[in-house]
């Protein structure tokens, strides 16, 4: 039996098996996605801060969303890349595993709260535009962001604490590319049925608590857009919400499959694939979703590239 002595327990992250060539190919793919994710989201943060045309509440939220994507990716991918280059299994200490899981879940929870707030912001912008600056003033937006960060971290303290209070007597080999909660529960020799049920209820509250205002907001948004008589007016109204709506479908879809299920100890391959979608694919797509589907962001990027070109040409 492996007792919970934080100085003794080490977790062995199995990651991705296969030949060295296959692992090096995966390394190249994940490194490329990590680089694009960091650079793409950094560009969004920089242009939101630097260009006055993006100094609105929608882009204030977007800047925080991009920052969260950077943090989520940076929590998961660097250790995974290190494991792909190692001939032996990646080893993580007890404290490292706690830290990784806590940060991953906290950043993810914060992101979902923020996405729900962005949906309400779009609802006010489309359905009540004349009162938008009164309702969504600077003080409200800053308060919403602060509450999202605080709640994201506070909510995940007990689930992570309860997970690591379990005795790990079966093994400390984690068949995943990071310290995934469902597989950690599977390693315990105690009956985790009640804990899994509590975690399931918490996942339902977190996801549907932020999804509910999103669904209500988009119901009113779609209803309002359909009442607009001109096709150009409908397109303009929908263009302000299209990128956020796309992100909602991808983000919520993957997390509902992974976390909203009574049995947290799902098959390892299932967990691995869905976790890749959450920690690698979604942050990778975020810059493209919010640039290719947003006319104002595309305009700012075009002007920025023209400015850089003229500076380079002049030098």
Automatic annotation (TrEMBL):
Transmembrane segments: 26-48, 60-81, 101-120, 140-161, 197-221, 242-260, 272-292
GO annotation, cellular component aspect: plasma membrane
Biological source species: Monodelphis domestica
Gene3D superfamilies (UniProt xref): Rhodopsin 7-helix transmembrane proteins
One Pfam family hit: 7tm_4
GO molecular function: G protein-coupled receptor activity; olfactory receptor activity
Membrane topology per record: Multi-pass membrane protein
Location of this chain's protein in the cell: Cell membrane
Domain G-protein coupled receptors family 1 profile: 40-290
PROSITE patterns: G_PROTEIN_RECEP_F1_1, G_PROTEIN_RECEP_F1_2
InterPro entries on file: GPCR_Rhodpsn, GPCR_Rhodpsn_7TM, Olfact_rcpt, Olfact_rcpt_6C-like
Descriptive protein name: Olfactory receptor
Similarity annotation: Belongs to the G-protein coupled receptor 1 family.
């Amino acid at each position: 039996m492996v007792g919970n002595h934080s100085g003794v327990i080490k977790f062995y992250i199995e990651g991705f098996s296969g030949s060295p060539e296959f692992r090096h190919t995966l390394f190249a793919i994940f490194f490329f996605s990590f680089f694009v994710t960091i650079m793409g989201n950094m560009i969004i943060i920089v242009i939101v801060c630097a260009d006055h045309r993006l100094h609105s509440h929608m882009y204030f939220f977007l800047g925080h969303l991009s920052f969260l994507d950077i943090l989520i990716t940076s929590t998961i991918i660097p250790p995974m890349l290190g494991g792909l280059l190692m001939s032996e299994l990646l080893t993580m200490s007890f404290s490292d595993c706690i830290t990784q899981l806590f940060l991953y879940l906290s950043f993810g929870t914060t992101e979902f709260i923020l996405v729900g707030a962005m949906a309400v912001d779009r609802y006010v912008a489309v359905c009540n535009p004349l009162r938008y600056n009164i309702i969504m003033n600077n003080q409200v937006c800053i308060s919403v962001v602060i509450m999202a960060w605080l709640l994201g971290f506070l909510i995940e303290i007990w689930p992570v604490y309860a997970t690591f209070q379990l005795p790990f007597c079966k093994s400390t080999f984690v068949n995943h590319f990071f310290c995934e909660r469902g597989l950690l529960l599977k390693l315990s020799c105690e009956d985790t049925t009640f804990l899994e049920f509590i975690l399931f209820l918490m996942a339902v509250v977190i996801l549907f608590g932020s999804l509910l205002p999103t669904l209500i907001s988009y119901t009113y948004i779609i209803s309002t857009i359909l009442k607009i008589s001109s096709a150009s007016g409908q397109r303009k109204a929908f263009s302000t919400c299209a990128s956020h709506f796309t992100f909602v479908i991808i983000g919520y879809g993957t997390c509902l499959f992974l976390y909203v299920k009574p049995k947290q100890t799902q098959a390892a391959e299932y967990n691995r694939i869905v976790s890749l979608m959450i920690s690698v694919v979604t942050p990778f797509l975020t810059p493209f979703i919010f640039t290719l589907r947003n006319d104002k962001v595309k305009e700012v990027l075009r002007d920025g590239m023209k400015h850089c070109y003229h500076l380079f040409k002049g030098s």
